[in-house]
Amino acid sequence: MALCPYSSPSFLHLRHNRRNRSRPLVVRSLDAAQPFDLESQVSERLNSESKLKIAIVGFGNYGQFLARTFSAQGHTLIAHSRSDYSDAASALGASFYRDPDDLCEQHPDVVLLSTSILSAAQVLNSLPLGRLRRSTLFADVLSVKEFPRNLLLSTLPQDFDILCTHPMFGPESARHGWSGLPFVFEKVRIGESEERISRCNRFLEIFEKEGCRMVEMTCAEHDFKTAESQFLTHTIGRILARLGPEDMDIGTKGYQTLLELVQNTCNDSFDLYNGLFMYNKNATELLERLDFAFTELKKELFANLHDILRKQLFESSQQSNE
């Protein structure tokens, strides 16, 4: 029996090709765009997942200073402080909570302790830790490190992660950016899960992206070194401030540097300086060494003066006798 010519394989193949050629080009265009749309969606999702919800506890001058950069990088910010900083928080894109219960119920990824050293224990003990997720990351930015490390370890539940940090700069020293400025940290207690390790690293990346010089060291080593640098700097600055130095038209560059030191150190509260002394066991020894060095320097000066006076006295006597 002969096959119908319209049902032959060659005719069917030709008709299929004609149908394909008659398809609108727009369909192919949409099909080609789909991978790019998917790539964009994946990129947006990954970018969203890299952002953190950060609760800044202690939203004073330094907390707001950090918040500006956190917000600029796209992180979600919530804040709490004993004083009402609602307007300041709103201006920085943060939500302010007067009640610590309300703050903790927002389930932040990171709780950042940015209080004064002297009030850190009181503020931490006022937080309703039971309202937080059990794996919350706690970080601090206090200028001493062994004290908050021991405080966080003794106060927080075992499941909470702990990261001790010290951005060694402030609004004055970092007014031109954070690039090249040291950021010291110790991963005191970070869970082994990939999620918790990633969260800690994402918080540290905030400072890496701004160009900070990342320095990982123990809290004990930090306190030993900052007693030799930060506490010494603040002490000299405050001693000079007691002398009341003033700008003058014949001031040398060295003198101008001293004036800047006074301004930079005295812009910080006395509570900060007092905390550097009270909560760093190395500070007492440094004060004793500073006092000893000053005493020795005075002895040397007066000894030289005594020798000069004796020499002048005896030379005058000798000349009189002649």
From TrEMBL:
Keywords: Oxidoreductase. Residues 52-322 form the Prephenate/arogenate dehydrogenase domain. GO terms for molecular function: arogenate dehydrogenase (NADP+) activity; NAD+ binding; prephenate dehydrogenase (NAD+) activity; prephenate dehydrogenase (NADP+) activity. The keyword Disulfide bond does not apply. One of its GO terms (biological process) is tyrosine biosynthetic process. This is Prephenate/arogenate dehydrogenase domain-containing protein. It comes from Dioscorea zingiberensis. The lineage of its organism: Eukaryota, Viridiplantae, Streptophyta, Embryophyta, Tracheophyta.
